[in-house]
Every structure is written in structure tokens, then in C-alpha cells.
Design a protein that fits this description.
The protein has 88 residues and is an all-alpha fold. The chain is built from two helices and no strands. α1 runs parallel beside α2.
Length: 88
Amino acid sequence: MPGIEKKVAFVDYPADDLNAILAVNLIGPFLVSQAAARQMIKQGEGGRLINISSVHEDLPMPMNAAYCASKGGLRHAYSDDRRRAGEG
């Protein structure tokens, strides 16, 4: 899934740009994966959810704090819960 970024110093990052980046890079994939997981559970056959993030989830990119945060959030949002989606 493509992402968006805007290179701005951390202390100057506009809240509107931060919200847009998080909406596209984190919230969008989160909601789509959530809907897909619900459908897989409903169908009873399981499945796999694959989200591709970025090396910048671990390696900071200068002037790009929002992008790095969104990619780290994407990786960590699913690190455990997806494996147990059907348990409960």
C-alpha cells in the first residue's frame, strides 16, 4: 500500500499534515485489515493479512517524523493481535 510523506522539521510539523499522513499510512490500512479479518473469521476459513511497511519503521529518516511514526505504528499495530484474531 503506498504511503505519503512530507519532510518538515519535527518542531515545525503542522498538525494537519501529521493527521493526513497518519490517515493514509496507518489508519487506512488498519481499517481495511480489520474489515478483512472480520470477513475471514465470518467465513471460517482463516487467511492471511499482509501489510508492507518501510525500513523507516526502525531507521529514522531526517525531517520525516510523521512518516516514520506511521510506518512503525503499522508494523506494531498487528504484531500480535492478527495471529489471535479468531480466538476469544
